[in-house]
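Q: How do we represent a protein-ligand complex in a form that can be generated token by token?
A: Start from the inputs.
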Amino acid sequence: MSRVAVLGAGLAGLSAASQLVADGHDVVVLERDGGPGGRAGTLVQAGFTFDTGPTVLTMPDLLDRAFSRIGANREELLPLRRLDPAYRALYADGSQLLVRANASDQVAEIRRRGLASDAVALPGFVAWLEELYALEMPNFIERNFDSPLDLLASPKAAARLLGLGGFSSLEKAVRRWFRDDRLVRLFTFQAMYAGLAPAEALAIYAVITYMDCIRGVYFPEGGMRAVPTALAGALSAAGADLRYDCPVTGLIQDSSGKLAGVVAGGERIAVDAVVVTLDLPTAYRQLLPDLAPPRGLAKAAWSPSALVWHVGVRGTPRPGVAHHNIHFAEAWESSFEELVTRKQLMSDPSRLVTVHSLDDPAAAPEGHSTLYVLEPVPHLGADIDWTAERGPARERLHHFLARNGYPDDIVTERLVTPMDWAAQGMAMGTPFSLAHTFFQTGPFRPSNVEPRLPGVFFAGSGTTPGVGVPMVLVSGELAAQRVGAYLGGRS
Ligand SMILES: Cc1cc2nc3c(=O)[nH]c(=O)nc-3n(C[C@H](O)[C@H](O)[C@H](O)COP(=O)(O)OP(=O)(O)OC[C@H]3O[C@@H](n4cnc5c(N)ncnc54)[C@H](O)[C@@H]3O)c2cc1C
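Then emit the structure tokens for the protein with flavin-adenine dinucleotide bound:
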């Protein structure tokens, strides 16, 4: 039996560990923090419990896979409920649109807003998304690439993607289906999840729209923190050794140059391979100081960052407020120009307000609520002094809450800025890693193998396939496949 260490108990690390356990390895997971989750974190403050990272949980079948391959039942250990509406979108003209869980409800919702021709277009749009998804998952997302030439291994899929308009702009592609600007925004803002403006993102990223608007947004019983907690528990039950408060400070090589172990919590642990899930530039700086980071990292395009304001308030939201509320500003193209190109704060920002306590009563005391307000802001490559900016930014967010009718009598709060993300080891102060430009996608994204130190593999949002909970779950599987090939080939 080979021994494999997984560095980090975030969702990438937990997914890798589950695949490695299933493959019969002796697995030790070494985590710096006091519990699992990483970016899917928790903050307990003044009687409130805040989920501090991902809020939009999609693609539960990828979680099912992580549980089932170690003989665990996701439905029992992590009950999920589909949110309906998935989103409430609010526009500057005072109108609203809901993203509904059910296709016929969605058609009715669009029709109800007086958009009859757009309602007729919806089924064709959904069929287009389904075809994109079915092509992209097996051929380009759930697979390891050794070189860009591997793209030629699926010429039919690539040709079909081209035929579907996958390499045109996302915004143009969605406009082919819908006339109303509000729908175009609703079905393209997901480009921001990939770190791009909708007009700049390729239409292949419509799969993100598919994953949340069509396949649905879910919420776990017990809050988002239940996801890593349940998976870590299932891993322990399946025999993995999970060690918390155990930072890894070094890698050990044998005389032939192969990985032979790790130094964690002051202890030397002999292992045959390692899956590193630290943010990639940090992994190179802290654990591989003698190796130059992958070439692309020096000149990489990084995703914008986010201000996240966690607020515990007296009172509950008025009827109609949804779990996820997107407040689209009047400005659109100019906002992306400011945020992505000029790296400035948006002068008229769009924001997401998530009210976890609506579906997680334990998050807030009786008669109180938790609010999670997210505003995209530039990463630390911008000329913004967050020490000076955090006060005014917090005031703007408070006015925004009050203006939009949310309870705003604050009991406790925490504002997270790009400086805080950087302090947690996230390059350029962004939790969303490398943007998904064409040359930072698929075989062009930093590889999950370090050939200069055999036995070292990577998972997480800085490597393939990319950013977000579904993608990092896949990244864990891909890294585990690499480990299997390495250890299998070695023996
Ligand atoms: C504010 C925010 C909102 C988001 N919203 C969404 C969303 O709505 N939907 C979505 O799908 N995704 C969202 N994401 C993205 C998603 O959360 C991440 O892509 C994903 O959780 C990253 O997981 P990971 O395992 O790759 O990284 P991490 O979670 O960062 O895991 C890395 C782990 O390594 C540990 N570590 C670091 N250094 C060491 C060391 N030296 N030794 C041992 N351990 C170490 C860290 O403590 C951490 O636990 C959001 C992220 C944030 C922060």
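The chain has a mean pLDDT of 96. The first helix runs from residue 11 to 22.
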